[in-house]
């Protein structure tokens, strides 16, 4: 593996920032140069959010362009559709099956597209969908959705599981670590 | 850290700035929170060796840092780009006095306006105030340049501005950490010729400023902050900051003059570089700041005739606009993707207030914070938003333009922190100049939008230590407001009654809308709600509060259990008692 471009897309407040922190730490442990670019502020209030994680020998721009992502983790269905053109043709897409209606849909000014996952699967063969919310619930906290998805993704890379576990122990606060390690395991099993 | 990169840590640009300040021996750090600069001072607050504070606004923050610098300490003050407008008054004069202990001003621009009301280019402040400016291009440089800025500050007796942009401030990359220098406080020296800026002294200091500028121009030509990376000489690129990273990726192996000191620019170095390359591009975000200076030197460059002065750049934009390489990838799935604008959180106290303002069809003079989202659908009940504190003074201006009857249909809405920042002065204006405006202070016990910082109304310092708390009610009374009411925005009936009474009054009033931000840790969330389909008449009254957790599924109205926090605002507008507890989705009934 020479370089790896990963995008985390979702809805502000879903925990993309913590997941990207773990990813960045993994990259450093693997001796990669790494850049993680994220959005703070207004869009974190329920808006569409994207985090770019780029690993390589030397990383310049922190942004990933259309058609350049090796992996996209989408925390929500509609967001997968919004960012899908950033995925390489043979790139891996992990979609959380959760649906969060945006305000224009809620107030009836727009329609939430039907059957997003199957439409994406027709075009991108390397797509897996996962009910991360149910898995997180079983692990004891719905907030662990982010780490479940990270677990699914970790399985898809050739980075050893130990490195991921070490990174999580460094980044995740002690009092929620246990639940998150469990969430990672479940995600990893699924992946 | 374990693993291979023993010395390296992954840091946000802002976190690296904090580390740089620590390693430079800084002992005083001040700021008012503002995206994308906030995490600088949040991270500085973690160092016990540094006194840090959230100041009421950027002007105060900079003045505290100036005082501390003159008193001999290395000092740092951080703000977002628009904060520099507030701090501009002391900035322009501390340029004249110079410093004792090093003084660094951090300013974070927001090209693309991810979280801002304009995309002004703060580089012009450096030129206008004659203060040198540095600009890092990744987290490592954030740390290194801050340390360098302190050396420059003391060597040239000047404040130094370090400029970040959103993609530098909020990108993480590897940083090698070092030791903190043992910086000794400089002696406090009374010197009114240097530090008292009255006309006679200021005229003499201006001469020093011009001498300093000449010395800095020479320095800019020789400092390693400005460096050339030779590649193919067919193309030369002059660039700085994040634009350097985009350019490197877009152009590949060409020659680069990377500017780390962006004011004053290195004239000689630029001229020498220009001579060596066949075509010269200037790649910079926002205004043609370098480009115009280089053109003025008589050097032909290509820049803004291809690149926009609006928004962020990217490697892709440079490839398309300059190299003609179009990325033709399109979304293969033919669907309209609805936009997802930010919304007030489920359980947000502002929602109850906006429900009432909308119902009463009031004119609403707005301000800066989470509650600015009240301007968007479905609330759509905020008419204006200009800058911090403007809601209060603008409501007054509206009344003076259109008369008292209009004033009685108008309110100002402003958050607790924003009110302290610069709303209080507008309120004094209303009292002094016989206005009748009604000002609603949204007291949610925290500075919300920037991610929960304490402020003078919360009773805690940046380090979480208990402190005196500004009493908003007493404050309003002290400046001459006789009608001060406190109301819970989730008690909709009572809140509406209070608003109706106060807008009718022939004198100014303040309503303190009091309920803590739902994201605060001490706020206890109630069990999630669901809709009893037998009771629900689908009248959609609950939808009128505009909660993202209540969704119209066509056949039925439903609550999204992962979003609901059980705030029960919806139950107060439902006439059919259709909401009931659904139990905790995390299993705790």
CATH classification class of the largest domain in chain B: Alpha Beta
Please identify which CATH superfamily of the largest domain in chain B we are dealing with: Thiamin diphosphate (ThDP)-binding fold, Pyr/PP domains
Number of E-type strands of chain B: 22
Q: Counting H and I runs of at least 4 residues, what is the number of helices of chain B?
A: 19
Helix and strand content put the structural class of chain A at alpha/beta
As a percent range, the share of strand residues of chain B is: 15-25%
Average pLDDT confidence of chain A is 94
Rounded average pLDDT of chain B: 96
- Number of domain modules of chain B: 4
The residue ranges of chain B in which pLDDT falls below 50 over 5 or more consecutive positions are: 1-5
Which term fits the overall shape of chain A?
A: globular
- Give the fraction of residues assigned to helices of chain B: 25-40%
CATH topology of chain A: Pyruvate-ferredoxin Oxidoreductase, domain 3
CATH architecture of chain A: 3-Layer(aba) Sandwich
| Widest beta sheet: strand line-up of chain B | 3-2-4-5-7-6-12
Report the CATH C-level class of chain A. Alpha Beta
Choose one word for the global shape of chain B: globular
| CATH homologous superfamily annotation of chain A | Pyruvate-ferredoxin oxidoreductase, PFOR, domain III
End-to-end separation of chain A: 19 Å
Order of SSEs of chain A: EHEEEHEHHEHHHH
């Amino acid at each position: 593996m020479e370089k790896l471009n990963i995008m985390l897309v979702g809805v502000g407040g879903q925990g993309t920032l913590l997941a990207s922190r773990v990813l960045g730490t993994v990259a450093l442990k693997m001796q990669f140069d790494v850049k993680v670019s994220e959005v703070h502020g207004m869009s974190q209030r329920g808006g569409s959010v994207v985090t770019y994680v780029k690993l390589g020998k030397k990383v310049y721009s922190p942004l990933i362009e259309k058609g350049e992502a090796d992996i996209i983790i989408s925390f929500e269905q509609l967001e997968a559709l919004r960012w899908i053109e950033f995925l390489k043709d043979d790139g891996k897409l992990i979609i959380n099956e959760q649906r969060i209606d945006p305000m224009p849909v809620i107030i009836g000014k727009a329609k939430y597209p039907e059957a997003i996952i199957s439409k994406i699967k027709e075009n991108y063969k390397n797509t897996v969908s996962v009910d991360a919310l149910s898995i997180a619930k079983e692990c004891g906290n719905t907030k662990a959705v982010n780490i479940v998805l990270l677990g699914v993704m970790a399985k898809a890379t050739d980075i050893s599981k130990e490195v991921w576990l070490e990174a999580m122990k460094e980044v995740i606060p002690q009092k929620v670590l246990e639940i998150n390690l469990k969430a990672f395991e479940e995600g990893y099993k699924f992946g | 850290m374990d693993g291979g990169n023993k010395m390296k840590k992954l840091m946000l640009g802002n976190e690296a700035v904090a580390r740089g300040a620590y390693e430079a021996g800084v002992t005083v750090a001040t700021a008012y929170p503002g995206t994308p600069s906030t995490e600088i001072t949040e991270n500085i607050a973690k160092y016990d060796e540094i006194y840090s504070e959230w100041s009421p606004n950027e002007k105060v923050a900079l003045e505290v840092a100036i005082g501390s610098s003159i008193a001999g300490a290395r000092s740092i003050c951080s703000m977002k780009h628009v904060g520099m407008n507030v701090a501009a008054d002391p900035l322009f004069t501390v340029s004249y006095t110079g410093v004792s202990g090093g003084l660094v001003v951090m300013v974070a621009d927001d090209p693309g306006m991810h979280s801002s009301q304009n995309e002004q280019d703060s580089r012009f402040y450096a030129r206008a105030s004659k203060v040198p400016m540095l600009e890092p291009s990744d987290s490592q440089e954030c740390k290194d340049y801050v340390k360098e800025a302190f050396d420059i500050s003391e060597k040239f007796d000047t404040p130094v501005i370090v400029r970040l942009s959103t993609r530098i401030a909020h990108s993480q990359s590897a940083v090698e950490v070092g030791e903190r220098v043992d910086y000794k406080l400089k002696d406090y020296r009374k010197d009114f010729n240097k530090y008292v800026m009255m006309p006679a002294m200021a005229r003499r200091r201006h001469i020093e400023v011009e001498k300093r500028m000449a010395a800095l121009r020479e320095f800019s030509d020789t400092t390693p902050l400005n460096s050339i990376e030779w590649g193919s000489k067919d193309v030369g690129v002059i660039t700085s900051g994040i634009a350097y990273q985009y350019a490197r990726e877009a152009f590949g192996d060409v020659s680069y003059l990377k500017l780390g000191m962006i004011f004053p620019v290195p004239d000689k170095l630029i001229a020498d570089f220009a001579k060596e390359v066949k075509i010269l591009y200037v790649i910079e975000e926002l205004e043609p700041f370098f480009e115009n200076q280089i053109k003025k030197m008589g050097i032909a460059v290509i820049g803004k005739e291809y690149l926009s002065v609006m928004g962020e750049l990217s490697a892709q934009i440079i490839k398309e606009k300059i190299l003609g390489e179009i990325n033709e990838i399109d979304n293969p799935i033919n669907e309209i993707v609805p936009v997802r604008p930010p919304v007030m959180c489920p359980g947000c106290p502002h929602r109850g207030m906006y429900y009432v303002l909308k119902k009463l069809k009031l004119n609403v003079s707005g301000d800066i914070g989470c509650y600015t989202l009240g301007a968007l659908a479905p609330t759509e009940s905020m008419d204006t938003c200009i800058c911090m504190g403007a809601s209060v003074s603008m409501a007054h201006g509206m009344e003076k333009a259109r008369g008292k009857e209009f004033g009685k249909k108008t309110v100002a809405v402003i958050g607790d922190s924003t009110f302290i920042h610069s709303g209080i002065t507008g309120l004094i204006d209303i009292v002094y100049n016989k206005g009748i405006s009604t000002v609603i202070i949204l007291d949610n016990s925290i500075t919300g939008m920037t991610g929960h910082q304490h402020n003078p109304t919360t009773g805690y310092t940046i380090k979480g230590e208990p402190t005196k708390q500004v009493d908003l009610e007493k404050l309003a009374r002290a400046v001459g407001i006789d009608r001060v009411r406190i109301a819970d925005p989730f008690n909709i009936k009572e809140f509406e009654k209070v608003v109706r009474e106060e807008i009718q009054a022939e004198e100014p009033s303040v309503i303190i809308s009091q309920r803590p931000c739902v994201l605060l840790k001490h706020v206890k969330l109630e069990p999630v709600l669901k809709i009893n389909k037998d009771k629900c008449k689908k009248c959609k009254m609950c939808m009128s509060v505009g909660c993202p957790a209540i969704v119209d599924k066509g056949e039925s109205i439903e609550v999204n259990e992962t979003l609901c926090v059980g705030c029960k605002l919806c139950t107060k507008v439902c006439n059919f008692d259709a909401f009931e507890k659904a139990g905790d989705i995390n299993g705790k009934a």
